[in-house]
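Backbone shape codes
____________________
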Amino acid sequence: MTTVAAYAAPAAKAPLERTTIERREVGEHDVLIDIKFAGICHSDIHQATEGWGEAMFPMVPGHEIAGVVSAVGPGVTKFAVGDRVGVGCMVDSCRECENCRAGQEQYCTGGNVMTYNGVGKDGEPTYGGYSEKIVVDEHFVVRIPDGLKLDEAAPLLCAGITLYSPLKHWGAGPGKKVAVLGMGGLGHMGVKIAHALGAEVTVLSQSLRKKEDGLKLGADHYYATSDPKTFEELAGTFDLIVSTVSVALDFNAYLGLLRTGGALVNVGAPEEPVSLNLFSLIGQRKTLAGSMIGGIAETQEMLDFCAAHGLGAEIELIAATEINDAYARVLGSDVRYRFVIDTATI
């Protein structure tokens, strides 16, 4: 075991504080990563506050991890010391179920092991990226291409793949009208990726406050959802809407913006239940769906795509001592567009 410094929430809703944790020894197929940067995802806040249900404490959040390999196990074939690598939302899965065999480890029917607030196959709790080092099986490590800066690449390990996967699955591309609902850490990557895929991109945001940013990042249009005229003007417009917001919506209103056969896909996860009038779906064969990150192969595909198109996240780099302030600012929508921790400050 190796002792490393980390920032942890000692209990639900408690401020994060500096502590130490134990990392396992490097096993046969393990990679030891010196973490350089860790993104702050809204999911970290949901889990540290038990907004999504009971959690395990102390909790070291962080599933947007970018770093450099510092040691490898004797059986490792994919990586070598010095490689630039990333780790996303999961660090293991059963690897045997139909989904795992299809490269969809995120939907492992045996239950995947999340990067933090999970339990590994050794029975020990998992601790995430707000730390100096992490040990991960090579299968769940991805390569960060040289064309991406490590700090700007870190958020791609969650925010990037969370948008890339549904945009690809639902066919965003030339001739398709795509709306991204919410212009935050997830949404800004959705705009960049949908634009790079060749779709006509519209941002639907509560206000026009970030309109200039949205257009600069690749949006063709930008509308305020607080304006009732938006729903009249855009009725029946979109092939695909990806909702990144984590509050309950009037789904009936947003389904009205879809064309016949269109899909509204949720990647944001509200803490409270939502209601729906099924006639909003039945009338024109519309789909209300969900999507969660991507498999390991698709995550690598996303990183290569982002490198080829020069798509890093828009970040604000912070010291570890600023994590609690950053959480408060995320809740106040006061970040453009992803906080990233410089782990040299832990």
